[in-house]
Amino acid sequence: MSNSNNKLWEGRFKKQLDGVVNDFNASIHFDSRMFREDITGSVAHTQMLAKQGIITVDEGEKIIEGLCGILEDIENGKLEFDFGSEDIHSFVEKELTERIGDEGKRLHTARSRNDQVALDIRMYLKKEIDCIVSQLKGLILVLCTLVEKHATTIMPGYTHLQRAQPVSFGHHLLAYANMFSRDIDRLSDTKKRMNVLPLGSCALAGTTFDTDRGFVAEQLGFDSVCGNSIDGVSDRDFVVETAAACSLIMTHLSRFSEEIILWCSWEFKFIELDDAYSTGSSIMPQKKNPDIAELVRGKSGRVYGNLISLLTMLKGLPLAYNKDMQEDKEAIFSCIDTVKLCIEVFTPMVETMRVLPDNMKSAAAKGFINATDGADYLVSKGLPFRSAYKAVGQLVEYCIENKKTLEELTLDEYKQFSELFDNDVYKAIDLLVCLEKRTSEGGTAPTEVLKQAKKVKEKLL
């Protein structure tokens, strides 16, 4: 192992960096996770240097062989990171030079750590976005399976957390499936804008060497190269966008978690979480706590904070590269790690939860959520909607005073509020009928819910 106190930039300096300052300045403790991207990028850069005659073919082959050996040794555990190194780039280059000699010193020709780190973080985030998209697809498929099973399971739909209209549990779950589908779209859009090669921008002004940036882009799977070298090293929009997309994923997971927490309470009791995704109390033996959902809800704040940190870090930076930008990695790594962990535990929690349809239907029956259908019934008989609305509102008040539901009223009681009521009113306010009648596109009718689930699944493909 080479002396980790030797810096890539030490030629200008007469004294070694203070130990505390070295630790403060170093990033290898967190950027070492990008070792694959750093080495892969260096291999493509070396291939280009050799192709362009900037280094010899023999030098290129020796450098690439050395880089591949380092990668293999890190992956199989034979080579440990030297946390005395400043960053992953310094570590790899020093290790390469120690292994192959002076040829290793040619690797950094026609590039800077500024464009090198910009490359590494783009490559890393592209890979992580693919992972999160795959996780979201798995969650959506779990939801679609539940949707198909519960397309006719009646529950109260809520506004202002007040029982409003009857919906199916499947219809309710589809709302989240659509949210997560949009999250996939956002991540895909972010990846598209991210897929621009910064390598070749060098420190900020490009290079005097005859490089072929298009070749490197093709080797590394980038769609194009960045059009301005200053922007190439100073752009972190893609990091912010990724954090923003992660924040919205956490928003959706958090909203879903909040409902799960409500639903498994005794006050709702719409679902019961599997024992594997619940915890107990240290003092109250009857408790079954939705701690997993609560933690997912709580961890959203961590991701939001990282987004604000990134925006704050960037907002006052002059062009081009500044050391402040090193702060982007811990923030975005935390976003990625948190989102992946949350989806990983959330998906099986939802998949294994036990749905309690009888409790949902009982809550629906007691909430007068078919009142709108009663008003629509009177409208179909020729009464203006506002008059129908008033008549049914009075009916509901009467029910509350007499501790009855709309289904329990006699026809004579109905006729006290409008002579237009007839025996067919009971069918009109039947909860399942109320569900089945809402056949507008995107509505809660079971036929529509199944169509929506099919569309969501088709989009995933």
Give an account of the 3D structure.
The protein has 461 residues and is mainly alpha-helical. The protein has three domains: 10-109, Fumarase/aspartase (N-terminal domain) (Fumarase C, Chain B, domain 1), CATH 1.10.275.10; 114-356, Fumarase C, Chain A, domain 2 (Up-down Bundle); 363-460, Fumarase/aspartase (C-terminal domain) (Ribonucleotide Reductase Protein R1, domain 1, Orthogonal Bundle). It has 19 helices and six strands. The chain has helices at 19-25, 28-31, 35-51, 57-75, 88-100, 113-149, 169-194, 213-220, 229-234, 237-263, 291-314, 328-352, 357-365, 371-380, 385-402, 411-415, 425-428, 431-437, 446-460, and strands at residues 154-159, 162-168, 196-197, 224-225, 271-272, 354-355. Strands 1-2 form a two-stranded antiparallel ribbon. The chain has a two-stranded parallel ribbon with strand order 3-4. A two-stranded antiparallel sheet has the order 5-6. A hairpin with a 2-residue loop joins strand 1 and strand 2. It is elongated. The protein starts with 18 loop residues before the first helix and ends with a helix.
